UniProtKB/TrEMBL annotation:
Family matches, as CDD domains: IMPase
Entry cofactors: Mg(2+)
Catalytic activity reported: a myo-inositol phosphate + H2O = myo-inositol + phosphate
Keyword check for Iron-sulfur: no
EC nos: 3.1.3.25
Domain of life: Bacteria
Protein name as catalogued: Inositol-1-monophosphatase
InterPro entries membership: IMPase (IPR033942), Inositol_monoP_metal-BS (IPR020583), Inositol_monophosphatase-like (IPR000760), Inositol_monophosphatase_CS (IPR020550), Inositol_monophosphatase_SuhB (IPR022337)
Membrane recorded as keyword: no
Amino acid sequence: MDLELLCNKVVAIARLTGNFIRKESLAFESSSIEYKGLNDLVSYVDKTAERQLVKNLKKVLPEAGFITEEDETENTYDRPFTWIIDPLDGTTNFIHGIPTFSISIALYEGKEPILGVVYEINRGEMFYSYKGAPAYLNNKEIRVSKATDLSQCLLATGFPYYQFDKQPQYIKLFTEMMQKCHGLRRIGSAAVDLAYVACGRFDAYFEYNLNSYDMAAGAFLVKQAGGTLLNFSGGDEYLETREIVATNGLITQEILDTIKKHFE
């Protein structure tokens, strides 16, 4: 398989669907909102974008299965290759007219990630990589930051919007992190947060209660850009445990030690 050629095709597919999402964002009305659960929003834009992505990705790799957010295709885990897709990461931002949302596409061979694309639509920023290659942003190679102390760092996270049982310790964690670093940001798209770690804008990102399609592509980008990926316990099963700590590799222990104070 020519992964470079495949990656170029996936980039083009993401850009095409991104154009659709950007166009729809200009005329989107709140009456189109649907609720999958508490604070879990979806619209026809998410669903149509997913169908577009699945249709075009099937053309470039017919033997692959899919894991998708909106279930607009049959999710399957029993193929040699699997696409893991979030067609609109940051739906709440999109619905409220906040211009940070993205398309996230990862390709796994078995349990190994081999390709990742995150397209931040409004800025036109395409982050991508494939096995054996560096990570790129719009054709320019990117690397994680070189910060060695938390006091030098800008961090990203996400706020719980359900499963509020862990909220008290998370607020305590926020408080300690904010006192140790330059600042703590909550953009609203896990894929973008991870892409920003990959290119050094954020020095680290942490969040829990994520799904595989939220983080698969972005996490691969961090790895390819020289970063470190763990769960809150320090293990590498971040997709399985649905929690992630992505760092530049130089502040990992300091981040983990702080998290472990509040999450056993």
